Amino acid sequence: MNTLKIDTRKFGPIEIDETKILSMPDGLPGFSGYHKFILLEDPNSKPFCWFQSVEDPSLSLVVMSPFIFKPDYEIDVTPQDIRKSWKAQKEEDLTVYVVINITEEKKITANLIGPIIINTKTSEAVQLVISDSEYSHQHNVLEGV
Amino acid sequence: MLILTRRAEEKIKIGDNIVVNVFEIDGNVVKIGIDAPKDIPIYRMEVLEQIENKNIEAASKTPEDVADVAQLFNKKFSRGQEN
Question: In chain A, is it the N or the C terminus that has fewer CB atoms within a 10 Å radius of its CB?
Answer without folding.
Answer: N
